[in-house]
Amino acid sequence: MPSSARPVTLRITEIFHSLQGETSRTGLPTVFVRLTGCPLRCTWCDTEYSFTGGTTRTLEDVLAEIASHQCQTVCVTGGEPLAQKSCLALLTALCDAGYSVSLETSGALDISSVDPRVSRIVDLKAPGSGEEARNLLSNIALLTPQDELKLVLASEADYAWAKAQIAEHDLTRRCPVLLAPVQGQLAPADLAAWILRDKLPVRLQVQLHKIIWGNEPGR
Prior knowledge:
By secondary structure, the protein is of the alpha/beta class. It has helices at about 60-70, 85-95, 155-170, 190-200, 210-215; strands at about 10-20, 30-35, 55-60, 75, 100-105, 120-125, 150-155, 175-180, 205. It has 5 helices and 9 strands. The protein has a 9-stranded mixed sheet. The termini are far apart.
């Protein structure tokens, strides 16, 4: 008798039901699946607790917990979810089950194998993150209108860099572009003023979940 295939497993930090606090899906009830591990160390990271630890769970177990929340919108995040090869299988399984799925990824790993039904939320790391060199610029050509590009900014210098990237790569013609201030480092009002001054066709993003619940993990 041939041996049965090993079950697909993932290292999970947490699964929780909340409101989406970022992207164009802001405010939507969403099930978040936070995968463990990340190869980057951004200076402003607010999910360092997901770098290590977590629990190894089967794909079937993860899908069952997601289904228990009775919510059709799912966000797979991290850490860096694509650092786990099984993330691709999870994304496809979620799409096959009829969920509206988004993926939050650092932009340092190749997104070409992500199921095309997934909305890919890709970071472009500004200099202030300390990880600008990790940007995989080949991802930009893969972006479609259903994807989104997020630039988290810690200073006016980061904003100037973002503005230059938008122009150089014609980013706003590829997909929606989101500019987000680092909490406690860049005032949202300042970023809003610069966007309006420069007439950038971008969206200002603030973290709704932090406005509601503060920095509480699992929100």
